[in-house]
Write a sequence for this structure.
């Protein structure tokens, strides 16, 4: 089993394939021979256009310049997601990327806010979060010291194209062709080569499966197994359509709950991405397509396209000499735009665990343990949106309200309801987001930390007002998002950035 890894073959050239090629070629290109095979005839899933702030750091790691990337992908800034009709029809909240208020050593800001609210001293929870206020005001500006947390919306096909160019510049080789067969070593069961329909064989020491939901290597060849989570995340279909932009881009994604799922709206510079995600057990495809087309703004630029998916994860992300990255590794549904984050996590983790001298089972097991933990915590966070709702107007929402949930999530919900506490487990992705979404979905703690009760009313009022004044001050430093984007791109145009 132990042999040095020199030749890496990446199967698939969607977002996952090209992000992998970009990172490996840039960071390890001198030591590796990297080949990516993709099939234009098969194409990519064509969605996946909203991200979370971790992508900013991935780009920094690779030395990708933001203005160049935004110009190449028609990108916009994203400060959060507006959840409309999720708590109940007509009730909205915005889950923003920032931190709300200020924690103290003993407890989180929500405890101070709960008491202040009880005394009539505080406004809405989101008033104390700069990113939330900026999103609502449609503002954006880069602030010093990462003072404003942000992510991007981008055109997925342009992103793959951009990263292809980046990867090829750093030495990755692209092969056009359809993988027909995955050839295994008889003795070890490891992958030996990919055989293309042209008859060409691509042999390698290590293979990265980025073939999307087909999972040609990790599943069809290595039979790694899939754990379904569809009983917790019941949506299994999406219909997607691109439309003309009718207004300047806003700096947040819209997620609008519908009778049997939800609709996304992702604003780019040149167009808008739209889609309806639903459970086919509760809504048929024609009805979903019609509902989506009745709710888009602007002329359609594409025909509505149906995408089936299953929520869940591959039983092992890394198995033998194959790593699954992207949709081949599983899918959690797009509600919190976490898939691209999970792609980069598997890539960065692979670089950390890179089997320079050969594959060791201890490292493979640790890799899989970390990846499992990460995915489970994100899964819980997404289920939260469906489970904690006041909606009971349709069969779908009644199912969601009543469904069993993982114990890990049940504990988090009980802890928050009974005590107001949220504790971050390990290095799970979401932190402030838990409070924002639980409160946004209507889950109010029954009590707050006793320490807060020891503050006088005027002390508490002063504390809350001080935070609000700071957020107001920062908000005044921000410009209109669309104006800022135009001037930021034109300032950097032609700078070779
Ligand atoms: P794909 O894009 O499917 O790419 C697969 C590649 O493999 C293609 O190049 C294909 O040609 C190639 N291939 C397949 N079979 C063969 C073969 N036999 N021979 C040669 N090549 C082959 N993620 C987010 O982070 N944010 C979002 O907002 C978001 N929204 C989503 C909405 C929906 C409805 C869905 C389904 C997913 C969404 N995702 C989102 C997930 C995101 O789209 C994916 O994580 C991302 O696009 C990566 O996909 P991929 O590269 O794994 O697969």
């Amino acid at each position: 089993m132990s042999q040095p890894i020199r030749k890496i073959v990446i199967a698939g050239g969607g977002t996952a394939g090209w992000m992998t090629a970009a990172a490996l070629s840039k960071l390890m290109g001198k030591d590796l021979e990297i080949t990516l095979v993709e099939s234009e005839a098969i194409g990519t899933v064509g969605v996946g256009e909203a991200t979370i702030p971790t992508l900013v750091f991935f780009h920094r790691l690779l030395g990708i310049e933001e203005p160049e990337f935004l110009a190449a992908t028609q990108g916009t800034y994203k400060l959060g997601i507006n959840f409309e009709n999720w708590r109940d029809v007509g009730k909205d909240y915005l889950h923003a990327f920032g931190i709300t208020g200020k924690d103290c050593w003993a407890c989180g800001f929500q405890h101070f806010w709960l008491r202040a609210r009880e005394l009539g001293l505080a406004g809405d929870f989101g008033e104390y979060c700069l990113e939330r206020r900026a999103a609502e005001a449609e503002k954006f500006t880069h602030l010093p010291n990462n003072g404003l947390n942000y992510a991007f919306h981008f055109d997925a096909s342009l992103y793959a194209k951009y990263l292809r160019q980046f990867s090829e510049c750093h030495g990755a080789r692209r092969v056009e062709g359809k993988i027909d067969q995955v050839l295994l070593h008889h003795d070890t069961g490891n992958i030996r080569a990919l055989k293309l329909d042209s008859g060409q064989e691509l042999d390698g020491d290590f293979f990265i499966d980025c073939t999307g939901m087909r999972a040609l290597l990790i599943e069809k060849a290595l039979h790694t197994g899939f754990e379904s989570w569809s009983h917790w995340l019941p949506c299994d279909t999406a219909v997607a359509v691109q439309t003309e932009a009718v207004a300047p881009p806003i700096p947040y994604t819209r997620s609008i709950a519908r009778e049997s799922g939800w609709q996304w709206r992702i604003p780019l510079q040149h167009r808008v991405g739209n889609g309806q995600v639903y459970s086919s057990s509760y809504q048929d495809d024609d009805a979903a397509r019609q509902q989506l087309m009745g709710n888009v703004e602007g002329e359609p630029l594409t025909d509505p396209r149906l995408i089936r998916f299953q929520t869940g994860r591959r039983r092992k992300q890394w198995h033998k000499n194959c790593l699954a990255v992207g949709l081949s590794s599983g899918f959690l549904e797009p509600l919190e735009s976490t898939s691209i984050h999970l792609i980069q996590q598997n890539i960065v983790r692979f670089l950390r665990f890179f089997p320079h001298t050969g594959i060791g089972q201890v490292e493979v097991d640790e890799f899989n343990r970390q990846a499992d933990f990460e995915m489970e915590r994100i899964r819980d966070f997404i289920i939260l949106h469906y489970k904690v709702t006041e909606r009971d107007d349709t069969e779908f929402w009644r199912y969601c309200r009543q469904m069993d949930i993982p114990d890990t999530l049940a504990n988090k919900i009980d802890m928050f309801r009974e005590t107001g506490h949220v504790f971050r487990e390990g290095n799970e992705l979401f932190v402030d987001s838990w409070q924002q979404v639980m409160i946004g979905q209507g889950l109010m703690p029954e009590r707050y930390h006793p320490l807060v009760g020891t503050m006088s009313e005027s002390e508490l009022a002063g504390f809350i007002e001080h935070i609000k004044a700071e957020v107001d001050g920062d908000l005044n430093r921000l410009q209109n998002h669309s104006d800022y984007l135009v001037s930021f791109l034109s300032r950097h145009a032609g700078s070779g950035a």
In short: The chain has 16 helices and 23 strands. The chain has a mean pLDDT of 96. Residues 12-17, 37-39, 42-45, 47-51, 156, 178-179, 210-212, 214, 216, 238, 275, 307, 309, 326-328, 334, 337, 339-340, 343 surround flavin-adenine dinucleotide (CB under 6 Å).
